[in-house]
Amino acid sequence: MLSITNLTHIYANGTRALDDVSLEIPRGMFGLLGPNGAGKSTLMRTIATLQSPSSGSIKFGELDVIKEPEMLRRTLGYLPQDFGVYPRVSAYDMLDHMAILKGISSGKERKDTVETLLNQVNLWNVRKKAIAGFSGGMRQRFGIAQALIGNPQLIIVDEPTAGLDPEERNRFLNLLAEIGENVVIILSTHIVEDVADLCPRMAVLAGGRIQLEGAPQDLIGSLKGRVWRTAIEKAELEDYRQRYEVISTRLFAGRTLIHVLSDTSPGAAFEPVSGNLEDVYFSTLSASRRVPAAA
Ligand SMILES: Nc1ncnc2c1ncn2[C@@H]1O[C@H](COP(=O)(O)OP(=O)(O)OP(=O)(O)O)[C@@H](O)[C@H]1O
Hints:
Layout: E1 2-10, E2 16-25, E3 28-33, H1 40-47, E4 55-60, E5 63-64, H2 69-74, E6 76-79, H3 91-101, H4 107-120, H5 136-147, E7 154-158, H6 166-179, E8 184-189, H7 192-198, E9 201-206, E10 209-214, H8 216-221, E11 227-232, H9 237-243, E12 245-252, E13 255-261, E14 271-272, H10 277-290
Parallel strand pairs: 3-8, 3-9, 6-7, 7-8
Antiparallel strand pairs: 1-2, 1-4, 4-5, 9-10, 11-13, 11-14, 12-13
Helix pairs in contact: 3-4, 5-6
Bound molecules: adenosine-5'-triphosphate.
Adenosine-5'-triphosphate (ATP) binds next to helix 1.
């Protein structure tokens, strides 16, 4: 179990990227959803001990993560948003090198580890090719392989499916789901379906604060009977926004489909729809925008 308590991070320029964040994250996949600038990467980097928070605490089991970062790193797998550079080294050699850095000094053990991981992420056939020439999906699978070196108990993946085609995305998410049963995996993303498909628990972060937390099914259940749909002209949208709590809009066959949150029917033109996680997410974001951020 990962326990985050009253975590705040203020950057040198005064940006309050995390504002009193508290979360209990159990074993399994945990989805952290939030829009751009919500503070997700700041939270992920802080848990991964790449930066220290301004205040607050993080515990992984009994381990005090902020006081003993090296201890956490031994049991951490981290897939950052972007590695930045992709070396012209083969996947095999790069993993072998990273395994040395992770402290696997025995050649035999390293060979076993690297071979098992390359098979697990389905890169065995291209193990001798340079990572620089890999597609986005292959790079992400390589990223997972390196994150899994040394059987980590805590795995952090930061926006892993952005830019993947649907097939690669599925393959990647299935891989995560397989490893996710016995360890803590935090999946940070702005893609709602990634969380809906995979995560038994989730939270929404916006403006540096946790806006909502729970099991996706329960959160969807809480919207029952409160989501309404109608089709309007694009030009009418502003007017509808003024009059109703519009939680999402989508173009459909030249019209604009809107979802509105309301305890009772907003009018004859509206039909009830069963809410989904996107409705949960967008209604949470629209509610968070109405609350002024802390100074
Ligand atoms: N090094 C930094 N110095 C100052 N401000 C920063 C720094 N890094 C991030 N921020 C700011 O902190 C806030 C949170 O950024 P963060 O990258 O954690 O969000 P995010 O949810 O990961 O967003 P994205 O999805 O765009 O990556 C933003 O307002 C961002 O501009």
